[in-house]
Input
Amino acid sequence: MSIWGSIFGGIIGFSLGGPLGALLGSFVGNKISSTRNSRKYNKFQNNQQVFALSLIILSAKLSKVDGHVSKEELNAIREKLNIPENEIDQVSKIFNKAKEEPHSFEPYAKQISEIYFNNKNLLEEVVNILFYIAESDGTVSSAELKMIKKIAFIFGLSDFQFKSILESRKSDGELNPYIVLGSLPDDSLNEIRKKYIKLSKANHPDLLISKGLPEEVINESKKKMRAINSAWDKVQKLRAN
Output
C-alpha cells in the first residue's frame, strides 16, 4: 500500500502537531478532526509517513536554497520518493506549499530531529537522500552543502557521520575508505573492522525498513551500504600490500 495517499488524507496530520502538522493541516483542515475518533493509527505506518513528509518538505526547502528550482531537482524528487502518478498532484501541493511559505527549514529539521531522537539511522538517511536531490542537476552548490550540513547538525549527527555520508556519495574509485568508515590510516585493522561491522549493521536495508524507512526510498540506502562494503574491501587490500 502506498504511503502517499495516507499522508495527504490527514491520517498523520492530527497526531503530528508542530510545523509539520500545521503545514499538512492547512490542506486537510476538518479531515484531521473528523478522523480523530474514526481512525486507528498504526505506529509503524505513521513512522514511514512522517519520514516521507519530512523528505518532501526539506527537499522543497533545499530546491530553492541556491536561488532556483531546476527541472532536474523536481524529477529527482519524484523519482527518489517513488511517487505514483495518481498521487503526484497531491504530493506536489505539499511540496509547493513548503517551497513558497516564508518559514525556513530549521523549525522543520528541529521537529524531525525530535521525532527521531532515538533513531539516528533514519536521520542519516534523510541527509543521504537530500544529497541525492542536490546532486541531480550535476553539482552540489555551496548553498546546498551548507544547508544539508546545518540539517545534519540540527539532527545531532557528528562531523564523522556527516563526512561519512558525503564521502559515500562518491564513485567507488574516488571514495576515501577511511572517511567512509570513520577511521584513520593509523588505526589498526581490527579497530577499522569493528567500525565497519557497526556501520554495516546500522545501515542494513532490512534494519532501516524495520525502523520506519519507506520501501519507496530504499534504493539510495542500498547504495550507501555498497559504499561501506567497498570501503572495507579497499582497506583490506591496502593493508595487504
